[in-house]
Write a structure and sequence with these properties.
Layout lengths: L2 H30 L4 H32 L5 H19 L3
Helix pairs in contact: 1-2, 2-3
């Protein structure tokens, strides 16, 4: 396995793990938002984070398959992975 495949696999696995964790938190927030009004204010940013990491999981998964199978489009998928990581960095970068 090439170093690029290993790196892409690590990114993919990390993104999937974060998505699963955020999905659990979203579920708890939605279930408890009726009892705790403060949670309702935090649901929007939480959903944005969930969607950003979900996009990273899909794009990096696609790139991982492309690298493993040596497809011609693997470089385009790698570019998408790094663009999504840049979008995440821009979203979380302190103002």
């Amino acid at each position: 396995m090439s170093p690029l495949a290993v790196l892409t696999g690590i990114i993919f696995g990390s993104a999937v793990t974060i998505v699963i964790g955020l999905a659990m938190v979203v579920t708890v927030f939605l279930a408890m938002s009726g009892e705790q009004p403060g949670l309702a204010r935090e649901t929007g940013p939480l959903l944005r984070s969930f969607l950003l990491f979900l996009a990273l999981a899909f794009v990096s998964g696609y790139a991982f398959v492309g690298v493993l199978r040596q497809r011609r489009w693997r470089w385009l998928a790698q570019g998408g992975t790094w663009a999504t990581i840049a979008a995440l960095a821009a979203y979380y970068w302190p103002a």
